[in-house]
Write a structure and sequence with these properties.
Two copies of one chain form a homodimer. Chain A is of the alpha/beta class and about 350 residues long. Helix content of chain A is about 40%, strand content about 15%. Chain A is elongated and about 90 Å long. The interface of A and B includes residues 55, 72 and 93 of A.
Chain lengths: ~350, ~350
DNA sequence: TCTGGAAATGTATACGCTTGCAGTCACATT
DNA sequence: AATGTGACTGCAAGCGTATACATTTCCAGA
């Protein structure tokens, strides 16, 4: 029923091999012939059958994008960046949601299955200790990752350690010495970014001899609600922090809310800083360390393409990329008040 | 190199046909045989080649999800809902971003190309007047749509007319008679939802004989920034509105910001209401009409599946679905003050 | 005019699976 | 005992393209 390469070949008076070569821009085709074939293909509304092409060539023309969330801001933003590049390269994007790690719903497709369906894998911020992840990293296939893993794979990320440091330093510069930490979750199930951000935070605490107190840490699951609850917990302590570093802006949003709900004023009574520069942050006057989220996706996708289209004469040199961040000071941070 | 159906067949001592039938759960296979085949397939780590299967069967096992945005809240939320169902049904999701309609970057793939790659199409909120859309709607293929189009296709949406009415009515009940409208864009390039929401708004204005003034309408492009600018424009008028209905919560967020930047208090000096119940709305105390966004995606995906797996004895009865909304009253709306 | 080699083109097979059709076999029916 | 009935199973023909490999064409150079 549908037009096949044979129809085009017949109409153009050439073999199917020539049509295939002409349409795909391969060399060794007379330009006149190529033009004719292209014209006829267009006229017949010929569309190559991806299934047949994939079967014959062994290439799938698609990329798996594995992500723990689809609709959360950071992830959708990254996905958007990835998509723009893949679309441009003519590759299909297979979005695979592996579910909420916090709830243990991980379901990364088994390696062989994945290998059959895609030419490359792009992983967004999975915790490195995930058992399903290892076989995938072992897979001999182009892949890149956003958000950091130790070795064996290209990784695109910000310098989380440094970002956390600058955020915390800002609080210190403002005179704060009792600083709370809003982390995502406990150390067992953390993304690489979390671990690094905590390290950055701790390094500043240690360097300046600030208060160290396990009660100054709370978990917000990277959600607004979680951030609010975590902040309330910190505020309920006998000696609450005078400033808080949140590992994400969304948790910081919740923290701002919690602070206000106690009749306190962010940036005056308690300082708050996050990481992200979420679109809402400006409106909520949240100080933060801005990272170019969509850009992370763009770069990771470009890395993947580089790996895929590597030839012997233009060898691909792997490498991780660290993307710059920018400290943005807004109203949510301010000098330590003499008394709370 | 990879294990094929022939390897399994050989190992099980049956024909490839039987393996194919056994593994896919088709009838007319002895249960003992089926179990044996399954066991051997598992043992060999056999994974069916999607390309070959697709080529032979003509089914692609994937669904195109066409959307104008990936990272905007509403869309990513819908996509997330869609994904959960497709994943459950074992279908691949091909995410196609057709770009920013506002800037005329539409690039819906040509119909024949689409038909070759997917078994079904799910469209998220494209403006019906898009010229690329019509051939797709004409396509003889399972499809469903979120956000409304006139006829010829299953459409999952809220009752936008009604939602806008209830939002506006709330303002009227609070005594407001000069109500502004924050729309997305001018009437030429609107989503169906926009048109319906404007109609709902107008119907209330007319019913209660409220102020009608073209100066009371501004465009916010459904973004926070846009909402802020639009609200500022309204505030700059000689006779600003005392209340505003925004077609989306995100525009309303911008409006709140604009109001505060003028030293006014939302809900006291000027009332604002949106549509969505965005996760931030509660924190910003924004009154709104809540719609179950992810649920829209779920339902649309289920409709698509119903169409795809329709058999002669269980005919699929098409139909659009209207999802319920809930008016949520928060602090951003309040009674009209005697004087501004 | 002849020849060598590159460029252009064609031939034919493989890719791995699905499925219509035909064949086999056990068992119930005459 | 002959026949019919289903359930199972196998055979083999595709599905539409890519690509080694073979063949032809075209020219420059001798």
């Amino acid at each position: 029923m549908a037009i096949t390469i044979r129809d085009v070949a017949a109409a153009a008076g050439v073999s199917t091999a020539t049509v295939s070569r002409a349409l795909r821009g391969l060399p060794n085709v007379d330009e006149a012939t190529r033009d004719r074939v292209k014209a006829i293909a267009a006229e017949l509304d010929y569309v190559i059958s991806p299934s047949a092409s994939r079967l014959a060539s062994g290439r799938t023309g698609s990329i798996a994008v594995i992500t723990p969330y689809i609709s959360r801001w950071f992830f959708s933003e990254v996905i958007s960046g990835v998509e723009s590049i893949l679309q441009q390269a003519g590759l299909d994007m297979l979005l695979i949601n592996v579910g909420d790690y916090q709830n243990g719903h991980a379901r990364i497709p088994p390696t062989p299955r994945l290998k059959r369906r895609v030419d490359g894998i792009l992983i967004i911020a999975l915790p490195p200790q995930d058992p399903d992840l290892e076989p995938i990293l072992r897979l001999d296939m182009p892949k890149s990752m956003i958000g950091g893993v130790t070795g064996g794979i290209d990784c695109i990320a910000i310098d989380d350690f440094h970002a956390a440091r600058s955020a915390t330093e800002l609080l210190v510069e403002n005179g704060h010495r009792r600083i709370g930490l809003l982390a995502g979750g406990p150390a067992e199930a953390r993304f690489v970014a979390e671990t690094q951000r905590e390290r950055g935070f701790r390094s500043v605490v240690t360097a300046h001899g600030l208060d160290e107190d396990p009660m100054l840490e709370a978990f917000g699951r990277f959600t607004i609600d979680g951030g609010e609850r975590a902040m309330l917990a910190l505020l309920n302590q006998p000696e609450p922090p005078t400033a808080v570093f949140a590992m994400s802006d969304e948790m910081a949003f919740g923290a701002l809310q919690a602070i206000r709900s106690r009749g306190l004023e962010p940036g005056v009574d308690i300082s708050v800083i996050g990481i992200d520069n979420h679109p809402m942050s400006g409106y909520l006057s949240l100080s933060t360390v801005a990272q170019p989220v969509a850009q992370l996706g763009v770069i990771a996708a470009e890395h993947l393409l580089a790996q895929m289209f590597t030839t012997s004469d233009s060898p691909y040199s792997p490498g991780s990329v660290t993307v710059e961040t920018t400290l943005i000071e807004r109203g949510s941070t301010g000098p330590l008040r003499d008394r709370l």
